[in-house]
Design goal:
Blueprint lengths: L31 H19 L2 H10 L4 E7 L5 H14 L4 E4 L10 H12 L4 H11 L7 E4 L2 H7 L1 H11 L3 E3 L8 H11 L2 E6 L5 H10 L4 E4 L14 H12 L4 E4 L5 H9 L4 E4 L1 H9 L3 H18 L1
Parallel strand pairs: 1-2, 1-8, 2-3, 3-4, 4-5, 5-6, 6-7, 7-8
Helix pairs in contact: 3-5, 3-13, 4-12, 5-7, 6-7, 7-8, 11-13, 12-13
Length: 313
């Protein structure tokens, strides 16, 4: 059974997601300059709406490029820093950005991301605030945003309402690590209703027959967990990952992106040499942001790590 959601983490009402007319767009007596501003704003909104994870991955594959996919936790050390970090990662050249919703019982995460989630929650980060952040930052970046959250916050809010809110905020994808394949079909139906791509995970212990089912059901890409265990920074990649990438390619033509334990440019180079279409880095970036002596030092260290991985892909 899923662990109960601590009520204090998710008590505030969701912010209104009603769309407002872009500034300069009025319902009557529209002047030519205002009309032009309106057209530009609508065009920008349309561009944001067309961003998709699968489209991005297809374009990269056609150009023989490997995706760099960073992960950070919203609200650690604070939401303003998260906004700056997302923009910086986009500027560096992140192809897709994963944004973690802090949760009190992150079962798939190791101590680094657990610590980040605890700090974010203690600082007052809520699901509502994360959605508001996505709405603020998504129109300003090129990379599609994938929200990473455990299932309890979705269940508490209501699946339909949750999907509608994150779609209106500008999220392109969703990753829910604590629901098994058999329970993803209903979630995917609601995701499809709102144009959200549901990314599924495969692990080193997943049987081949089940990998094939996961590969068929996932959207955007297949998230291949490189280790048996939780997230964290590793000294080197496990050699068996090469065989897992090959197995997934034998049962699906969808992109395979490798995560968990990726922290060094050498890791990215090795993963790319194994034929994976994407490299995912989380804990190293999260540690840089949340455990540095100052916000400025944290952002600088995150940028250093991210640039190294981006250049190695």
């Amino acid at each position: 059974a899923l662990s109960p959601l601590r009520a204090r983490n998710m008590t505030l009402r969701a912010p209104s997601m009603r769309s407002a007319a872009p500034r300069g767009c009025v319902r009557h007596r529209v002047t030519a300059p205002a009309a032009r501003r309106c057209a530009v704003a609508v065009s920008a909104q349309a561009q944001v709406a067309t961003k998709s994870v699968s489209g991005t991955m297809a374009e990269l594959k056609a150009n023989k490029k490997v995706a760099f996919i960073p992960f950070i936790v919203a609200g650690d050390p604070n939401l303003a820093t998260t906004e700056t970090a997302i923009k910086k990662l986009d500027e560096i050249g992140a192809d897709v950005i994963e944004l973690g919703v802090p949760y009190s019982d992150p079962l798939a995460d190791g101590p680094v991301i657990q610590g980040a989630a605890t700090r974010a929650l203690s600082a007052g980060t809520t699901l509502d605030k994360v959605i508001a952040l996505v709405a603020k930052v998504s129109p300003t970046i090129k990379a599609p945003l994938v929200m990473f959250t455990y299932y309890n916050p979705i269940m508490r809010r209501g699946m339909d309402k949750f999907m509608q809110q994150i779609q209106e905020a500008g999220a392109s994808g969703l990753l829910v690590p604590d629901i098994p394949l058999e329970e993803t079909y209903e979630v995917r139906e609601v995701c499809n209703k709102y144009g959200i791509e549901l990314v599924l995970l495969a692990t080193p212990t997943t049987p081949t027959a089940r990998m094939e089912k996961i590969a068929k059901a996932t959207q955007g890409f297949i998230y291949l967990v490189s280790v048996t265990g939780v997230t964290g920074v590793k000294a080197q990649m496990e050699s068996r990952v090469e065989g897992l990438v090959s197995t997934l390619h034998s049962v699906s033509d969808k992109p395979v992106c490798v995560g968990f334990g990726v922290s060094q440019p050498e890791h990215a180079q090795q993963i790319a040499s194994w034929g994976a279409e994407g490299v995912i880095c989380g804990s190293a970036l999260v540690r840089a942001l949340g455990e540095s002596a100052s916000v400025e030092e944290g952002l600088a260290e995150m940028e250093r790590i991210a640039r190294g991985l981006r250049n190695a892909c």
